[in-house]
C-alpha cells in the first residue's frame, strides 16, 4: 500500500503474475479447479502452479495421467456440468493429442446443441521457441487454433495481461485458449493494480508511432519493441500493436494503425505459409489497400523444423534485426 491507502506498482515476473491470477481464480470461485500433467506436486512444468496444491488441495489442483485427450475431455465434461475448469497442457505440440476434443467437442457443442450446451473452459499452454527444446517442443501453433470458430484465442505478452486476462477468460461462456510464450515466464517488470477487467476484444498500442506499424503478439512483442527503439535512433517512428486476442482479431485496431502510418510489418513466430501473419496481411489488403505506401512486410520463422543448436535456432526465428530490416524495406 502507498501513502493515503493507494495501491502502488510492484515488481514481479510473468510467471508469478500468472500464478497470482490462478490463485485469485481458485479463491474467488469454488467452481474453478486446475488440472493437467504435473500441475500439483511438481508445481507445473514451467513452475506456474507452484504452491497451489498445498494451498487448495488435490480436489482443486489435480494431477492427471499423461493423456491429453482424456483430461481435456474431462475438462469439457466438467464445464458442461457447471464447473469452471482450467486445463493446463504442457506445450502446444501436446495439444495436438487433444485436437479432436478441442475442435470437435469444445468448439462445436454450443452450436450443435442450439445454444443449450455452453462450454466455459479455459485451456492454458506454453507456446513458442527460443529455449533450445528442438523440433519436438518449439512450435507456434496458435494460428491453427485461431482458424477455429467457437473458441477465443488469447496471447498475453505482458505481465499485466498474464495477471488480468484469466478472470475475463473464465467468465466467457465459450472455450478460451491461452497461449503463454515460454520465453516470457522469466520476464520481470512493474505490475500495476487492476482497476477494470482486461478488454479481451481489443488490441493494444504498446508504443505509438507515425511512420510504420509493427503488428505482433506474444513472445515477439519484446523484439518488436526493441526494433522500434532501434528505429527511433534512425529517425523512424514505429507504432507497435499487440494483437493480444488472435480470435477474434481486432480489425479496427489494425486498420486504424495502417491509416496512421501507411506502412506495415507483421511479426509472427509461426511459419510464414498459412500463418496468422498471412491472415493479418490479407485483411489489410482487403480493408486498407489504398492506405498503404509500400507492400506489407512479414517477418516469420524459417520454413524448417526448429533446430536444437542455439545459433541455428536463432537463425530460424524472427529477431530484432530482421524486424528492423523489414521496416527499412517498407520505409526506404
Structure description:
By secondary structure, the chain is of the alpha/beta class. Helix content is about 35%, strand content about 20%. It is built from 14 helices and 14 strands. The protein has helices spanning about 15-30, 50-55, 70-80, 90-95, 100-105, 110, 140-145, 160-165, 165-170, 220-230, 250-260, 275-290, 310-315, 320-330, and strands at about 10-15, 30-35, 60-65, 85-90, 120-125, 150-155, 175-180, 190, 205, 210-215, 240, 245, 265-270, 295-300. A seven-stranded mixed β-sheet has the order 3-2-4-5-7-6-12, sandwiched between helices. A five-stranded mixed β-sheet has the order 9-11-10-13-14, with helices on both faces. Helix 12 (about 275-290) links the parallel strand 13 (about 265-270) and strand 14 (about 295-300). The longest helix has 15 residues, at about 15-30. The model is unreliable at about 1-5 (pLDDT under 50).
Indicate the percent of residues in helices: 25-40%
Q: What percent strand?
A: 15-25%
Number of helices: 14
Find the structural class using helix and strand composition. alpha/beta
Distance linking N and C termini: 50 Å
Which H/E pattern describes the elements? Answer: EHEHEHEHHHEHEHHEEEEHEEHEHEHH
Number of DSSP E strands = 14
Low-confidence parts lasting 5 or more residues at pLDDT below 50? Answer: 1-5
Specify Rg, calculated over alpha carbons: 20 Å
- Give the rounded overall mean pLDDT: 95
Largest sheet: 7 strands, mixed
Q: Globular, elongated, flat, extended or rod-shaped: what is the shape?
A: globular
- Strand arrangement, major sheet: 3-2-4-5-7-6-12
Oligomer: single chain
Amino acid at each position: 500500500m502507498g501513502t493515503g491507502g493507494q495501491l502502488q506498482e510492484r515488481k514481479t515476473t510473468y510467471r508469478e503474475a500468472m500464478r497470482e491470477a490462478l490463485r485469485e481464480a481458485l479463491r474467488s470461485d469454488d467452481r474453478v479447479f486446475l488440472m493437467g500433467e504435473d500441475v500439483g506436486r511438481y508445481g507445473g512444468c514451467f513452475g506456474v502452479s507452484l504452491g497451489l496444491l498445498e494451498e487448495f488441495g488435490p480436489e482443486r489442483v489435480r494431477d492427471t495421467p499423461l493423456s491429453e485427450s482424456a483430461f481435456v475431455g474431462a475438462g469439457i465434461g466438467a464445464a458442461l456440468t457447471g464447473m469452471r475448469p482450467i486445463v493446463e497442457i504442457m506445450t502446444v505440440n501436446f495439444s495436438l493429442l487433444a485436437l479432436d476434443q478441442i475442435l470437435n467437442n469444445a468448439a462445436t457443442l454450443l452450436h450443435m446443441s442450439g445454444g443449450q450446451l455452453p462450454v466455459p473452459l479455459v485451456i492454458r499452454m506454453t507456446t513458442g521457441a527460443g529455449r533450445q527444446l528442438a523440433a519436438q517442443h518449439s512450435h507456434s501453433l496458435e494460428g491453427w487454433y485461431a482458424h477455429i470458430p467457437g473458441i477465443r484465442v488469447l496471447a498475453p505478452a505482458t505481465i499485466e495481461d498474464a495477471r488480468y486476462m484469466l478472470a475475463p477468460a473464465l467468465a466467457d461462456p465459450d472455450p478460451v485458449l491461452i497461449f503463454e510464450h515460454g520465453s516470457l515466464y522469466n520476464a520481470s517488470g512493474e505490475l500495476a493494480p487492476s482497476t477494470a477487467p482486461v478488454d479481451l476484444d481489443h488490441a493494444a498500442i504498446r508504443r505509438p508511432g507515425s511512420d510504420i506499424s509493427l503488428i505482433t503478439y506474444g513472445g515477439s512483442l519484446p523484439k518488436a519493441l526493441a526494433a522500434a527503439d532501434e528505429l527511433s535512433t534512425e529517425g523512424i517512428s514505429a507504432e507497435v500493436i499487440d494483437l493480444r486476442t488472435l480470435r477474434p482479431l481486432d480489425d479496427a485496431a489494425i486498420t486504424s494503425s495502417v491509416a496512421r502510418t501507411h506502412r506495415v510489418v507483421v511479426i509472427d513466430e509461426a511459419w510464414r505459409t498459412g500463418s496468422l501473419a498471412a491472415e493479418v496481411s490479407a485483411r489489410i489488403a482487403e480493408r486498407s489497400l489504398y492506405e498503404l505506401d509500400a507492400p506489407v512486410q512479414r517477418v516469420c520463422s524459417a520454413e524448417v523444423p526448429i533446430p536444437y543448436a542455439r545459433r541455428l535456432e536463432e537463425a530460424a526465428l524472427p529477431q530484432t534485426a530482421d524486424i528492423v530490416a523489414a521496416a527499412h524495406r517498407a520505409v526506404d
